[in-house]
Amino acid sequence: MTHAQEPAAVAPAAVAPADTGPEDVPLLDDLMPWSVAPLRLGRAWVLAPDARTLRARWERLVAAEGAERAELFRPSRARTVASSVAALPGQRTGTVRLAREPGPCPEPVRLAHGPFDEQWLLPDHRLIDTARPELWRVADERQVFVVEQGYVPGAAGPALLVSAALPDGRSPAGRPGRIRPLFRRPGGREPNVAPGLLEFLGGRYGCGVGAPDVAAWALAVAAPSAAGCRVPLPADPEVWAAGVALGRELTEVQLRGARGGARPRLPGGRRPYVRAAVPARPEVIGYEPEDEVLTVGEGRISPVPRAAWEFEVGGVRMLEQWFAHRTAVAEPGSLEAIGPAAWPQEWTSELLELITVLALLAAREPERTALAGRAAADGVGRGALRAAGLLPLPAAARRPASVLDHQEEGPEGQFALL
To answer: Rg of the chain over CA atoms, in angstroms?
Structure first.
């Protein structure tokens, strides 16, 4: 991620005493105030691990007529084949009712489906119950999404993740968190941070602070709580610098080569390889800790660090969930039942990269935990933010910005008024 220019020098603000308890630790909501609730797709068939499957499902849908098409669609209270809705921002899809004229298959786009699982989505507003157009409006090659994970008391795993692909905000367990774009407007404009926060932090730590630094710090030290994701701000500039540096590295790993970063790689000798090919239809995934072998049916991948196999979010193992998303049995005759005839090679490549990502993140977890403890032990609490005039936040900071530099197609082909 790129970094903002250094702000003009700002005198250090008066700081309240170190936090008096967990409730005084700032919330992510205090620092990055604009957030959006998770998407609600409404029907599973619009999402798939490969784009070919989505095109096959669309062809099956449009080949059906009348009641059969309506049944295959899986109607809900929000969407039926008779629904008339505007196009999603940035997407060239039909707006004519599906019952009358479905049109060509929408071009599938990448979607971050919960933690660490990128899949493909048909980006057609007629197919999605709650698509959150305000997120699509700011999704571009500069945007990064910070995604809170659902709070599960006592569960292991990170409280925050980042994604270059638009996320659906799904949590594997617990109540879903919120999605926070790094920027409020396309093109990396208008950082989604509390007004005055960058100047306040720059004065505290004696350095230029940009929105990517705030997101990197949060990624490095965030902790879940029932009240929301808490992000302790340190009193020590050296702790801040160490946390931002760690957060940048964690961000690069999670973005997997997007936004100008390098693709994640483990050191030589520790990189996972396929030792026995994954069969056409694997039914189970397992782990042999003695040999560091991940078994996928009769397929064998090694070396796989035990920490990667045990990596959890919300109490759910990520490798097991990733596999379940690709092997779950669907209802016969449904669009969800349309899928690859055999395990695609690209899935194996994605699995190898996921193992790498989880192993790299797990290796930094002790450092991340220690840093969060140092920040919380001598921190800048919410009282200090109130004393500096940063809290309470203005209501406008929690609302999406107006984006008026492009046209969007409304229902039945008319232009939408923004």
So the answer is: 23
Whether residue 44 contacts residue 129, with contact meaning beta carbons closer than 8 Å, is answered with no
- Residue 361, C-beta contacts closer than 8 angstroms, at least 6 positions apart: 158, 250, 253, 254, 311
Query: pLDDT-based confidence at 219, cuts 50/70/90?
Result: very high
Residue 173, pLDDT score = 77
Which of 48, 36, 47, 16 lies closest to 340, judged by CA?
48
Q: Is the pTM of this model over 0.85?
A: yes
Q: Say what percent of the chain tops pLDDT 90.
A: 82
Q: Tokens 């809705």, residue?
A: 85
pLDDT at 407: 61
**Paired residues of 301 in beta bridges:** 274, 294
Range 328-346 average pLDDT: 97
Of residues 404 and 131, the one with the higher pLDDT is 131
Closest listed residue to residue 216, CA positions, set 199, 191, 188, 241: 241
Residues 6+ apart with CB under 8 A from 316: 172, 173
Identify the pLDDT of residue 404.
Answer: 61
- Which pLDDT band holds residue 204 (cuts at 50, 70, 90)? very high
Long-range own/partner contacts, residues 389-398 (CB < 8 A, 24 or more apart): 389/196, 390/30, 390/194, 390/195, 390/196, 390/197, 390/200, 391/30, 391/194, 393/30, 393/33, 393/194, 393/195, 394/195, 397/33, 397/34, 397/194, 397/195, 398/33, 398/34, 398/35
